[in-house]
Amino acid sequence: MLSSMLRFISIFLFAVTLSPSIAIASSDSLSLSNQIQPLAIKSIILDIAVKDETMVAVGERGHIFIFDEKSTPKWRQVPSPTSSHLTKVFFTTPSLGWAVGHDATIIHTQDAGLTWQVQMSSPEIEKPLMDVLFFDTDNGVAIGAYGLFYRTDNGGKNWTPEYHEELLFEEDIAYLAELKAEDEALYLSERSTLLPHFNRIIATNDGCLIMVGELGLVSVSDDSGVNWQKLDFVYEGSLFNVIESDNGFYVMGLRGNIFQTGLDLNRWDQVMLPTKSTINGAILAKDGGLRVVGNAGVILDITANGKGELVTQRQGENLVSIARDPQGHIWVAGTKGLFELK
């Protein structure tokens, strides 16, 4: 009962973050995809990725923007091959990048974000992809809602689905085993919805992977995500981000919950914040702490010893992503577009 309630809250808040107008996977005509829209820079933008001199942002209706410090304005919209909402973007080199989003969409660029091609799109499954990570130019994974997990070993030319039963609750494993023996069709239907949402995946400095998600999911893999170990965690709400610091890791999510741990992942301590707003994005600060952004326009600094301080709050918008450009300036993305944090 508790897990069902927390899942409902997670889905509800995710929809609020995106606003009612885009909470459902888009099926707009692709004739809109390649149109450059002057006001798009003020629309919902969900992620910013930086790799050396390349900086790219993505958001609703497939909007894609590239950054150029020397141009005015500094962000320029480029044509997109999709009108599905894009949730995450990742670059392995300054030229090679991937973005994922609703309709299980995956798109790819080979020229630093100037042009993009669709590698996968599956509107029929009605589930969004939430993150993408490549280990090199060929091998990568994409993750999403209800345990979506795809893998490629050829740069995204082909994506193979995986089902990670080891991340189910024990009672669900037993339930599925019993159901499979009785009703194969119902088993397959139930199986597709029982895994938690996978929200964020990162590669650690020692070569492991950490993935966080719904219902307090914190999981670790030491074989590129082929197998996962679910960690005992102190919180049952949804987690939307994980970031590595010099001394350990931070995870963050619903209701202003941030937890920090050492590199051994053994003990989790809560970071006390002056807000209950959901925390979505984070970057490392020069002093070893974090700067984080979240719903209700909150921007906070987290010190290395685990104290949170509100820096500023922007009214009427939710902040989703934060990144530092090649010149060291900080940019924030959210429900009212992109802005530079002065």
Automatic annotation (TrEMBL):
One Gene Ontology term from the biological process aspect of the record: photosynthesis
GO cellular component: photosystem II
InterPro entries cross-referenced by the UniProt entry: PSII_CF48-like_dom, Sialidase_sf, WD40/YVTN_repeat-like_dom_sf
Flavoprotein recorded as keyword: no
Residue ranges occupied by any Photosynthesis system II assembly factor Ycf48/Hcf136-like domain in the UniProt entry: 70-160
Keywords: Photosynthesis, Photosystem II, Signal
Cited Gene3D superfamilies: YVTN repeat-like/Quinoprotein amine dehydrogenase
Signal peptide residue numbers: 1-25
UniProt name for this protein: BNR repeat protein
